Amino acid sequence: MAVINPEIRKEIEKYGIENFNACYNCGNCTAVCSLADENNSFPRNVLRNAVLGLEDELTTTIDPWLCYYCGECTSTCPREADPGELMMSVRRYLTTRYDWTGLSRKFYTSKKWEISAILLLSMLVMTLFIFFHGPLTTELTAEGGVKLNTFAPWKVIEMGDWIMAGLLSFFLLSNIGNMYYKIILKKKIRIPLKFYFTELWALIFNFATQYKFSKCEPKETSFFKNLKHGKYNYWIAHFLLMSGYVILFVVIVVFLSWFQTDSIHPWWHPQRLLGYYATIGLLVGITYFIFHRIKKDNEKSQHSHFTDWTFIILLLLTTISGILVHIFRINGMPYPTYYTYVAHLMILFPMLMIEVPFSKWSHLAYRPFAIYFNNLIIAAKDSKAGKKSSTS
Amino acid sequence: MTKNTVFPASYDTLVMGGGIAGEEAALNLADQGYKILMVEKDLSIGGKMIHLSKVFPTLDCAACITTPKVSEVARHPNITLLTYCDTKEISKNGGKEFEVSIEKKPRYVNEETCTGCQLCEEKCPVFIKDQFQYDMVGRKAIYVPFSIANPRIATIDIENCILCGACEKVCPADCIDFTQEAEMLNITVKSVILATGFKLFDASIIERYGYGKFHNVVTAMHMEKQLVPTRPYNEVLRPKDGKMPDNIAYVLCTGSRDATVGNPYCSQICCMYSIKQAQLLLGALPMADITIYFLHIRAFGKGFEEFYQQARAMDVEFIKGKIGRITEQENGNLILRYEDIEAGIVKEAEHDLVVLSTGILPDALPENLFSNQPLELDMFHFVKQVDELASPAKTSIEGVFVAGTASGPMDIPDSILSAGAASSETAAYLRRLS
């Protein structure tokens, strides 16, 4: 039996959306959506569940994660109920519902909580540096670079990285477990074991490419026409940002000894090339997103929740401080190097700790996993239907 | 009518608009002995109704109801009819009367002597798409607008005329006059009835429906023209290739109840006229499948629900779901994408003809029509009824009344009722004046 929670509308409205109750249930949004298909007909169903207060249906739905907010539904909605933003708000809501610690809900609904948590973690990093930093040597390397590894030996930093990575994985994986429970176990969907392996490619492929994002928006006939008319711009900007981020995350957590060196490699060295690609990717992506969020020139940048701004600003500051560390180090400026290095970590650490498991950045896991889970459900359904038709 | 013709300079009532509401109001007042001036901007009176096939829910012939009224208006001794005229300005003079200036547009044909014999039409060498037949057939540059037009007078479409003079040579009554110019008429009236009607929503605004781009996406008024007794092909054909359609879709709420195009209100007629057309089509094309895509069927009037149920019983398919997007295929068929609300699943359906049931928009009055006292409009730019419950025809200007769809969307019976109210209120007002 369906349980109705009349408070759900107010709860959802905390996550950004304003007027979705205006919906008169015509299905225009689903019909114009280029990602909706017979297996996942959204966004009307999600909006309808939110209007009716069907909390169970809302918390177990996979559909918001399959939406990439092209905004076509919002710009054509005859009631101006803003289904695109509703999907965005439900994604935020779901993030808080997957998070068992309750911190996510605090961060999403209270600026105070979010900012205090960032400051607290920043202070923690600073305190650790104050007490445990290495000697502030002004001596330079033979090439004229700063001896950063004397101030902050990579072995020590790497230990911190591993602890952080452990924490991140613990929170994120347990939240994904929770997501799996809600989407599949709770609904008693039986999935044959083999599909978990055969569909694994979807998880990896979509994590690496955001292929579905490129399918968003009504498209024209040819790839080049789409490219020319800017239909892929968001996807490309997002891809640059994402790839830059993933590269840096991997080299910092796994290959720090190779990445944080005192010696200055020539410009063509893979270490520097990778770093530069990642930095440019991040800068292009961030600039693109900030520009559109300020200009509000398309549907998906109309509404910016404060968590969107926190995330993108932290990312921007991390990137800038990272660039400065690099410039100061290769130009042999010890003190500026040390200070910006501490500042860099003071921004980086809270950003990762708060954004990845609890806030906007969690979508890096939820989106590919949602596609994976969705493929599992469809594969299971198809094989069941196939069996039925073969027996009958 | 030339400048020197004796033309009475004062009337009891000016009726703006010669549609069903204006006719009804004018006749009611004229029968009581009031002198009426009716001004129609088009070539013929009769409004939208004269172009319709049948009326809902009785399926009575629309022309059979409206043409007797049209003729009566044209012949009534107390009604002076001016067609092809624009009312430019209405201003209240010092007393209770209104000064009206009317621009009489040239027809280049003498209205007094033209008999409507159409010999000129036969001779005219210029072929143009016939706007009264939704471009389905051609007409000449000199033409009588349509077969049941009233007044039945030829007019030269000077934009397309090549000034060859063929009509002039053939006209037995010698009434072609290329020297005609627009002239201004100034008259005085004691009261005004606004019966300016409505215009239909321009479906090309909703680009994703492809109207104007895909040939086989038509409006309901276009379809209506294929169903009237004077229909051009005597057959229902789809525009692109002249094929007889056998799978027709109706898209309700095109331009109504849609905030993105600026009219969030219900047009009140589209559900019923679509159901009516569906039933007529089942008569014209007995083997055709007809699907009506609706949001909510609003069958609110007397006999409407039964009419709707009758359509269902006739196997017209009703699907709840707004059409999101229409795409054209190579063979001219159309793919309609929608969410089947009952199933909750997005679907695509193929149809060979799509009819957009376009809604009612206010037909904007000329700017600054009331020059020294503004006329209040409602939030959707219909004429505001300032006392809707007690005196529905009353407007913000004393002595100016509103009838029919000028005040908001309504169907034919309601327009006639509204015109009755307007004429009664006007009569009472005129009594009080004298």
Poorly predicted runs of 5 or more residues of chain A = none
Number of helices of chain B: 8
Overall strand count of chain B:
23
User: What CATH architecture label of the largest domain in chain B applies?
Assistant: 3-Layer(bba) Sandwich
- The secondary-structure class of chain A comes to mainly alpha
Main traits of this protein?
heterodimer; A: 392 residues; mainly alpha; Fumarate Reductase Iron-sulfur Protein, Chain B, domain 2; 2 domains; 68% helix; B: 434 residues; alpha/beta; FAD/NAD(P)-binding domain; Alpha-Beta Plaits; 3 domains; 7-stranded mixed sheet; 5-stranded parallel sheet; 23 strands; 21% helix; disordered N terminus
Give structural notes.
In chain A, 37% of the residues are buried. Chain A folds into two domains: 8-98, Alpha-helical ferredoxin (Fumarate Reductase Iron-sulfur Protein, Chain B, domain 2), CATH 1.10.1060; 104-381, no CATH class. Chain A contains 20 helices and no strands. Chain A has 392 residues and is mostly helical. With 434 residues, chain B is α/β, with parallel strands linked by helices. Chain B folds into three domains: 1-104 and 182-197 and 363-434, FAD/NAD(P)-binding domain (3-Layer(bba) Sandwich); 106-180, Alpha-Beta Plaits (2-Layer Sandwich), CATH 3.30.70.20; 201-361, FAD/NAD(P)-binding domain. Helix content of chain B is 21%, strand content 26%. Chain B contains eight helices and 23 strands. In chain B, strands 1, 2, 5, 6, 7, 12 and 23 form a seven-stranded mixed sheet that branches. In chain B, strand 1, helix 1 (20-31) and strand 2 (36-39) form a beta-alpha-beta unit. In chain B, helix 1 runs parallel beside helix 8 and helix 6 (270-284) runs parallel beside helix 7. Chain B is globular and about 65 Å long. The two termini of chain B are 31 Å apart. At the A-B interface, helix 2 of A face strand 18, strand 19 and strand 20 of B.
What is the topology?
The complex is a heterodimer of chains A (392) and B (434).
Chain A: H1 8-13, H2 28-32, H3 44-52, H4 55-59, H5 72-76, H6 83-98, H7 103-109, H8 111-132, H9 148-151, H10 154-185, H11 193-198, H12 200-209, H13 211-214, H14 223-228, H15 233-253, H16 256-259, H17 270-295, H18 306-330, H19 334-358, H20 363-391
Chain B: E1 10-16, H1 20-31, E2 36-39, E3 54-55, E4 60-61, H2 62-75, E5 79-82, E6 85-92, E7 98-104, H3 119-123, E8 127-129, E9 138-140, E10 142-143, E11 155-156, H4 166-170, E12 183-194, E13 198-200, E14 217-219, H5 220-225, E15 247-254, H6 270-284, E16 289-294, H7 304-313, E17 317-320, E18 323-328, E19 334-340, E20 345-351, E21 353-358, E22 360-362, E23 400-402, H8 412-433
Helix pairs in contact in B: 1-2, 1-8, 6-7
